[in-house]
């Protein structure tokens, strides 16, 4: 009996005190004073309370985690990076413009000549001269071999020809800038274009033309040639094979004399350069070029057309669809740049995979209908092209064309604020990331001076980009895409690619 | 607009809403149920999903309450008076989770069809 009492006492002391028993004892005392247990009494109430507070925290996310990246695109202020070094521009008496941007902490420099001459300024008979001349100029002058001298300094000499501009530039150490200017001036003015070199170069160029049949460049060359048919922008940069075979020294000298004139040239330098020194050197050196500022330019006409080159023996089909866009000096070109970012680009190696920002890239990647896709927007002096280039396997061309055309036409109907903000941020960062280093900066200076006549300050550029909002996108898309002719160029196994009328019908929707 | 409705439905502000809450409290207390126990997972799949996400103890307590209420209703009895005084019919455990589930479903509907699942 005593054992039993002791055992029950021990058991009661080991039992955890539950408020149920406590309340029970108090309830037996006075019945009117029964109160419901507090929310911390029962374990399920305690858990429910903590869960409630956690769920409420979800409503107000901690802004510290969202400061540098958030799932919602936000407009942020960039004023702390907009004060970049100033570009100094001097125009010499003969018309040559010298522009430099010196960054004091760099020890290398890029100096180059950007010339407002390209394959656009040729005629049908002389097509190919610009490119040929650019190759020949590197071969040597009367006094020296330019490439050798630059490489002796440890620098690089390079050049390219576009449809509307040609460039020769050298990347050198800071102490070799003036020598590089010397070499460049010599190259342009005193090039000895001898016959032996010319014939060797001719063979090299012909081989290159043959090798580049199925590359991305070929698609764009065909696109230009069909979009701007019968007009100078349609001519390819290499030139027709027949022309390449007949180019001679007189053609090249004539081209230099008519098109490499000082008002159409910009000597741009960036990096460890001093503006006054370069101006002085340029004044002394660039004396033998003519100062004729006439730039004979035929207007470019856009023709809605297509060119298809079926070749079932290559594995992938490449095609490009382009609308006529606007010139680089038109304010709408900025809106077109933002729209290009909205359509985006994707390829199978993209790190983002199926979760990229643009809706077109997501559709293409999730359904697996393309190997790669790229939106492009190029601007020339009086016209431009905007479109999408895609590489795909032959069986999914129909779905891919549908996705591309619906994404482009959708820009005229439904544009969300989030997409526009994301595209703007991407455009700003890609512009800034691209101009890292002395060469891209020098190229940027040269190009901007040739196209705009001045270097647009970054603050102004960012302000123009920020001024693009959904209504601007819709207006610009209506102006350039809604029910407008397109140009298509396609090569490869393109039997399943829809015909021109199919594409042209999908430049507008009947739903609205 | 919504704040006008809230003031209409808020028991602290509207006499009618307070009367409704009092009568509900009386009826729920007789069976020992909470208001959130009345949400039926077979009626709305959102409720089922929300109950799936709640911790085990809360769902077990809910099920025990429901069993007790079913048992009382079968016997045509009510809960003993002292237990009735201790009931807290409007202590909620489901409302926030249900709101979260509904919000997620609404977000998911806004996506295009092929993005609604994890690819």
UniProtKB/TrEMBL annotation, chain A:
Residues 97-239 form the Peptidase M16 N-terminal domain. Its cofactor is Zn(2+). InterPro entries: Metalloenz_LuxS/M16, MPP/UQCRC_Complex, Pept_M16_N, Pept_M16_Zn_BS, Peptidase_M16_C. Pfam families: Peptidase_M16, Peptidase_M16_C. Keywords: Hydrolase, Metal-binding, Metalloprotease, Mitochondrion, Protease, Zinc. One of its GO terms (biological process) is proteolysis. Belongs to the peptidase M16 family. This is Uncharacterized protein. It comes from Hibiscus trionum.
From TrEMBL, chain B:
The keyword Electron transport applies. It is found in: Mitochondrion inner membrane. The keyword Electron transport applies. Pfam families: UCR_14kD. GO terms for cellular component: mitochondrial inner membrane; respiratory chain complex III. Belongs to the UQCRB/QCR7 family. This is Cytochrome b-c1 complex subunit 7. It comes from Hibiscus trionum (Flower of an hour).
């Amino acid at each position: 009996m005593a054992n039993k009492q002791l055992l029950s006492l021990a058991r009661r002391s080991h039992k955890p005190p539950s408020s149920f028993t406590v309340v029970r004892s108090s309830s037996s005392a006075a019945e009117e004073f029964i109160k419901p247990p507090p929310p911390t009494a029962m374990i399920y109430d305690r858990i429910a309370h903590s869960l409630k507070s956690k769920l409420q925290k979800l409503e107000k996310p901690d802004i510290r985690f969202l400061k540098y990246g958030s799932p919602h695109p936000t407009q942020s202020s960039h004023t702390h990076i907009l004060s970049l070094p100033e570009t100094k521009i001097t125009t010499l008496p003969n018309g040559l413009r010298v522009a430099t941007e010196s960054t004091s902490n760099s020890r290398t420099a890029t100096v180059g000549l950007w010339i407002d001459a390209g394959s656009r300024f040729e005629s049908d008979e002389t097509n190919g001269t610009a490119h040929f001349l650019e190759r020949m100029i590197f071969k040597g002058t009367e006094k020296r071999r330019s490439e050798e001298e630059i490489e002796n300094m440890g620098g690089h000499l390079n050049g390219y020809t576009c449809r509307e501009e040609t460039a020769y530039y050298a990347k050198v150490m800071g102490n070799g800038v003036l020598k590089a200017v010397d070499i460049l001036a010599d190259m342009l003015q005193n090039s000895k274009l001898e016959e032996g070199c010319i014939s060797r170069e001719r063979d090299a160029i012909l081989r290159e033309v043959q090798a580049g049949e199925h590359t991305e460049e070929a698609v764009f060359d065909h696109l230009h040639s069909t979009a701007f048919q019968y007009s100078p922008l349609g001519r390819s940069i290499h030139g027709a094979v027949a022309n390449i075979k007949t180019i001679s020294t007189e053609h090249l000298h004539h081209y230099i004399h008519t098109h490499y004139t000082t008002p159409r040239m910009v000597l741009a330098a960036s990096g460890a350069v001093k503006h006054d020194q370069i101006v002085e050197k340029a004044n002394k050196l660039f004396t033998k070029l003519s100062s004729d500022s006439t730039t004979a330019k035929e207007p470019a006409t856009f023709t809605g057309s297509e060119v298809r080159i079926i070749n079932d023996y290559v594995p992938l089909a490449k095609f490009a669809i382009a609308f006529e866009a606007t010139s680089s000096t038109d304010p709408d070109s900025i809106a077109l740049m933002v729209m290009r970012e909205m359509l985006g680009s994707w390829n199978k190696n993209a790190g983002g995979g199926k979760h990229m920002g643009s809706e077109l890239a997501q559709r293409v990647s999730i359904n697996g209908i393309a190997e790669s896709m790229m939106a492009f927007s190029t601007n020339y002096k009086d016209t431009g092209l905007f479109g999408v280039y895609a590489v795909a396997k032959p069986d999914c061309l129909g779905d891919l064309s549908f996705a591309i055309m619906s994404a482009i036409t959708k820009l005229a109907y439904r544009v969300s604020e989030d997409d526009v903000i994301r595209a703007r941020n991407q455009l700003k960062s890609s512009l800034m990331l691209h101009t890292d280093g002395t060469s891209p900066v020098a190229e940027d200076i040269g190009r901007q001076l040739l196209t705009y006549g001045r270097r647009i300050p970054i603050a102004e550029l960012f302000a123009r980009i920020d001024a693009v909002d959904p209504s601007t996108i819709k207006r610009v898309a209506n102006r350039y895409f809604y029910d407008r002719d397109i140009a298509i160029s396609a090569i490869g196994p393109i039997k399943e690619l829809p015909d021109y009328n199919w594409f042209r019908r999908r430049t507008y929707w009947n739903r609205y | 607009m919504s704040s006008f409705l809230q003031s209409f439905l808020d028991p602290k502000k509207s006499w009618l809403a307070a009367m409704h809450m009092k009568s509900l409290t009386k009826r729920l207390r007789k069976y020992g149920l909470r208001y959130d126990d009345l949400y039926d997972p077979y009626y709305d799949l959102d409720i089922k999903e929300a109950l799936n996400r709640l911790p085990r103890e809360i769902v077990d307590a809910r099920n025990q309450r429901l069993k007790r209420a079913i048992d009382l209703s079968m016997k045509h009895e009510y809960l003993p008076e002292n237990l009735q005084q201790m009931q807290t019919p409007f202590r909620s455990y489901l409302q926030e989770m249900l709101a979260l589930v509904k919000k997620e479903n609404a977000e998911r509907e806004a996506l295009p069809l092929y993005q609604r699942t994890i690819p």
